[in-house]
Amino acid sequence: MTLLPPASPSPAALPAAALQRNLAYVEASIVEDEVLQAARERAIELGAAPVAPSVGALLCIYAQLSGARSVVEVGTGAGISGLWLLDGMREDGTLTTIDSEPEHQRAAREAFRSADIPPARTRLINGRALDVLPRLADGAYDLVFIDAAPLEHPQYVEQGVRLLRSGGAILLHNALLGGRVPDPAQRDPATLAVRAATRAIAEDSQLTSVLIPVGDGLLCASRN
């Protein structure tokens, strides 16, 4: 079963101004602690676009609901999404996070240290995700979060589904790509790649999915 937005707005769709007010209200309702705030500032300095607070909160909730012990993150950034994931994971859980930028991982490591997260709970791998993911075990992970190059989203999704256990979830960030994905006039390579990844999830009979319009769009799919 696939739960995705309709191709065209419904007659009851909110006016744009009201929708923006709602989204701003949602973001403002989430208060991040000092460690997350510092990590967010560092991410902006590094040019590592951080997930919105609403996206982070959803990551935490997904990790909690699934009782996640083993999580893979594609795109470490400055550690913001990792902090949210770790907050929701079991205390004996391990986050494997992959990024090709050493500076990003240094910032994330510092954020984890500031949050008093034991080193054994994080495994930071520096390298291209498409080189690392094939080396990870099939069906061994509770949650896969993808927040990396849109052009490679289809390959990340293919690998991510392989890694999931039954009942696990794959979460794809930037699923709206700044409003380009739902705009049929947009045909640039990154937009086409994200659409292809979304379509692959929608057409996979193993998955039940929904696209949530928080941050830049979070596509969530659970494996049957």
From TrEMBL:
Q: Which EC numbers characterise this protein's activity in its record? A: 2.1.1.-
Read off the CDD domains from this record: AdoMet_MTases (cd02440)
**What keyword terms does UniProt attach to this protein?**
Methyltransferase, S-adenosyl-L-methionine, Transferase
> What Pfam families would the database entry show?
Methyltransf_3
Q: Which biological process annotations from GO are given for this protein?
A: methylation
State the SUPFAM superfamilies in the record.
S-adenosyl-L-methionine-dependent methyltransferases
Whether Nuclease counts among this entry's keywords is no
| Molecular function, one GO term | O-methyltransferase activity
Q: Which Gene3D superfamilies match?
A: Vaccinia Virus protein VP39
Where, by residue number, does the polypeptide cross the bilayer? Answer: none
Source organism, top-level taxon: Bacteria
What this protein is called in its record is Putative O-methyltransferase
**Organism, as annotated:** Nocardia aurantia
